[in-house]
Amino acid sequence: MTRTSLNSQIALGVLLGIVVGVGLATLDQTTPLAIQSLYFVGLISTLFIDLLKMVLVPLVFTSIVVGVANLQTHQQINRVWVVTITYFILTMILAILLGLFVTNSLRPGEELQIAMFQDIMQASEAKQMTWQAFFAQFLHSLFLNPLAAMAQGQILAIVVFALIFGIALVVGGNRYTNILNLMKELLELILMLVNWIMRLAPFGIMALLIQLIATQDIELLMTLIQFVYVVIGTTLFHGLVILPLILFLTTRTTPIKLWKGAREALITALATSSSAATLPVTLRCVEQYLHVKPDVARFVLPVGATMNMDGTALYEAIAALFIANLVGVDLNLTQQLIIFFTAMFAAIGAPGIPSAGMITMAMVLQAVGLPVEAIAILLPIDRLLDTVRTMVNVEGDIIGSMVVQYWVDKT
Ligand code: ASP
């Protein structure tokens, strides 16, 4: 299938998804028609995500091993490491600063009555987690038995093991040529499977969008509409202005070229709300349409999908300030600094799965003494907000790989 026809099919899928989703949302959700439609749509969307997840673990492992091995032999590994990590940290800092600035200026949530949310808050069983506990857990999750990590889909541990494995393969030299070749062939094979799975993308994306729109809690959404605007507006500003500007200033690539090349990945991110599930598509876009060399893409993207989350970092900061406004707490500068650091940590630690940012949010709230139960207010609308922040997370990874490629080429 040509790229144009797949792209127009995906566009049609998005359009139909929105139209049918809105139609279903207006139906009484208890009618047999609505129940059966949602059941059917649920089957298709789960199937699509399951297929992406099926190839995810072997893809992450082989792509990092091959990426590291190739980079090592080119002796570019140091530069790639430094540029990648600097880019990840800098863009997340920008995202959090933007979130703090906008929320401090607009102060959403101040006029809302907390009493309205008392019921939800009481019903919540949100877990309390201090930043110390979070750090210990994070450290612990880095080094796992690789087979257990693969079986359980613990991507961060797989990334760490693959990095070490790739380095060892290079240090071992010619003795391990067979293993390296095996990894390369395995990776090519998995990428072929990704291309097959993408043929189902128009249906998967349509089903995911129908499900998302039809099951929104409109009443709560309207109550929190100001917050929703601030989150979506700021996230889009980061994704439409800040990130493309960084790309343009470093590589002279225009936003149009970026979005044309990245659209399959961005739409998949929006529909799945998972950077990890989107990774196979992201790799394909970056290598095939944006012409980043496989060595760079296969190293930067899997690491980025796990650790680099601009949208999530920004959201953590905005949501923490929003909750403070809601409960009438005025956060001073020190507390905002704590939010700054914990939001960064929470974004790095959040796995690339739907609503992961809401789970690590507990740590941010806890760090400044805000009620963790307040997460329950945001959870029902999180699926919607997660769409945009995951899209910006993935865009950040894509731009990261292009920036790294540029620096590698310069030397
Ligand atoms: N869903 C996001 C992602 O996969 C993580 C988050 O919940 O913020 O990138």
Describe the structure in your own words.
With 411 residues, the chain is mainly alpha-helical. It has a single domain, classed as Sodium:dicarboxylate symporter (Proton glutamate symport protein, Orthogonal Bundle). The protein has 18 helices and no strands. It has helices at 3-26, 32-74, 77-106, 118-123, 131-140, 146-152, 155-172, 177-198, 201-214, 218-223, 225-251, 255-272, 275-288, 294-307, 310-326, 333-349, 356-367, 375-410. α9 (201-214) crosses α12 and α11 runs parallel beside α18. The relative contact order is 0.17. Mean pLDDT is 87; it is low at 123-127. The site of aspartic acid (ASP) has 16 residues, from α17 and α18. Aspartic acid (ASP) is lined by residues 273-275, 309, 312, 350, 352-357, 386, 389-390, 393.
